[in-house]
Amino acid sequence: METRLTAKFRAAGPKVMYNVRQRQAVVAGRTGRGEEKEMRTEGEAREAAGRGASPIALVELEPGRSMGKARCEPGWSWQVKEMPDYDLWYAVAGRGSIAVNGQRHPIAPGCCFTLRPGDRIEAEQHPDERLTVMFVHFQASAAGGTGGFRAPDCRVEVGDTARFESLMGRLLELRDMPPAWAEAEFDCTLKLLLLELYRSERQQPLAGRSTLRQRELVRTASDRLRQGAWTAADFDSLAAEAGVSQRYLSELFKRHTGRTLKTYAAGLRMERARLLLAESGMPITRIAEALGYADLYSFSKLFKEHNGLSPSEYRRRAPTTISTK
Question: pTM of whole model > 0.85?
Answer without folding.
Answer: no
